[in-house]
Amino acid sequence: MTASYWLTNVRLETGYQQDEKGVYETKTSLFHLKIADGKIIEKKDASFVIPSGETKVDGKGLLAVPTFKEMHNHLDKTYLSLDWKAPIPAKNLTERLRLEAMELDALAPSTKQRASAMIELLLSQGSTHIRSHVNIDPYIGLKNLEGVKAALENYSDKLTYEIVAFPQHGLLKDNVISLMKDAMRNGADIVGGLDPAGIDRNIEKSLYEVMNLATEFDADVDIHLHDGGHVGYYTVDKLAELVEEAKWHNRAAVSHAFSLGDVPVPQQEEIAEKLSNLGMSIMSTIPINRTLPPIDLLDRKGVNVYLGCDGFYDSWGPFGTGDVLEKVTRYGELYRKSDELSLSQSLKFATGGPTALTKDGKVAWPLAGDEANLVLVNASCTAEAVARTPKREAVIFRGKVVSGQI
Q1: Tens digit of pLDDT for each residue in 139-190?
Q2: Pfam families annotated for this entry (predicted)?
Q3: Would you say 35 and 7 are in contact if contact means Cβ atoms under 8 Å apart?
Q4: Cα torsion at 156, 157, 159, 165 (round to 10°)?
Q5: What are the DSSP E strand ranges found in 251-399?
Q6: 84-119 in b/e burial notation, b at 16+ Cβ within 10 A?
Q7: Cα dihedral angle (211, 215, 220, 225), rounded to 10 degrees?
Q8: Which one in 10, 36, 135, 180 has a CA-CA gap of 20 to 30 Å to 393?
Q9: How far apart are CA 352 and CA 304, in angstroms?
Q10: In 286-323, where does DSSP find H-type helix?
């Protein structure tokens, strides 16, 4: 744990300025935060005189926001730390999976090295929690899991993490279910799945096996769902039915879920209410080339929506920055969230919930007792940070600077 110190002259939000047209400005002030044992134990106005002899670290007037959660990533796939290599073109998903399978064995010895490079990048962009899907399939077995787990364990003093056992080449193929069980016994935390219709060709059986694994290992669920239209919608609806039967409330997520944006609004509202009642989450990467799930509607209905950068610099795509805040910026552009309040409140999609202010402008973070997880940026307020994605000057995890410097 970190020794006690004061993080001085940190800019924090104190409220919204508004008129009859709504919020037009965010009010801020400078504060001193006392940090001990990884937590914020005191919060004082900058006029407070710190007792002599106590350690001080100058925050230089930088704005503090909560650290981010990278909730959809593939640490095992990246080419980071290797020589540049662009993806080989593929005509469809089946061909892409075949090409990936061909190179899995060759990449396996460098999994820990490559994953570590990705972790460093994500940390530098402010993420102190990573949910990584890891291939579990007949071609690679548990090799990727071993490498990713070793890499994450090396960073356990800098972040928290979850590992999803991900049947990238299909859950119902060959001996994958047996491999998934081995993965759950050897470091995976969450049961994954992939396109019950498009890949497994049997929606009910695929989802049943996912939930069977989840209940056997008392694990959460996070399935990839690229299947679109009414087939994808039916898949989410069927998963919700199985979640309810298993009483797996607040323990299941659907990643991508493009299909929820393909159906008419009344159906979107119906499924959103189901997801909300079951505590099911949606994980989005805010792609620019696919229909998005209706994030605004889901959010209004109380569905937790999280963002992630997905895999990047890998056989699937050469693009990416590892910046979850940039994903929020893209969300703002796509949904025209350009006003002060909308920009400010949308930070929750990067942090996994916390924002400095409530919608009503009341201070919600940081408070005495909170974990000392902060990102320091050169911005006047959260709205500016979301709109302009400034450099992360320092990333602090449980009171310790884990990236950048102050």
Answers
A1: 999 999 999 999 999 999 999 999 999 999 999 998 999 999 999 999 999 9
A2: Amidohydro_3
A3: yes
A4: 0
A5: 252-256, 281-284, 305-307, 374-377, 392-397
A6: eeeeeeeeeeeebbeebbebbeebbebbbebbbbbb
A7: -10
A8: 36
A9: 8
A10: 295-300
Calpha distance 363→152 (Å, rounded): 33
39 is written with which tokens? 């937590």
CA angle 274, 244, 191 (to 5 degrees): 100
Residues constituting the chain: 406
Q: How far apart are CA 121 and CA 331, in angstroms?
A: 21
Residue-wise pLDDT for 40-50, tens only, equals 999 999 999 99
> In the chain, how long is the greatest CA-to-CA distance?
69
Instruction: Give the Å distances, CA to CA, from 132 to 23, 115, 370.
Output: 37, 10, 25
Q: What is the pTM of this model?
A: 0.96
- Rounded CA gap, 166 and 133, in Å? 6
Buried-state track 301-315, b at ≥16 Cβ within 10 A, e below 16:
bebbbbbbbbbbbbb
**Token pair for residue 142?**
């548990």
- Pairing label, strands 56-58, 5-19: parallel
Backbone angles phi, psi at 314, to 5 degrees: -145, -170
Which tokens go with 278?
A: 């079951």
Half-sphere exposure of 336 (CA within 13 A, CB side): 0
Neighbours of 212 (CB within 10 A): 14
Taking only the tens place, the pLDDT of each residue in 350-365 is 999 999 999 999 999 9
What number of helices (H) and strands (E) belong to the chain? 12, 16
SS3 label, residue 31? strand
CB 359 within 8 A of CB 341: yes
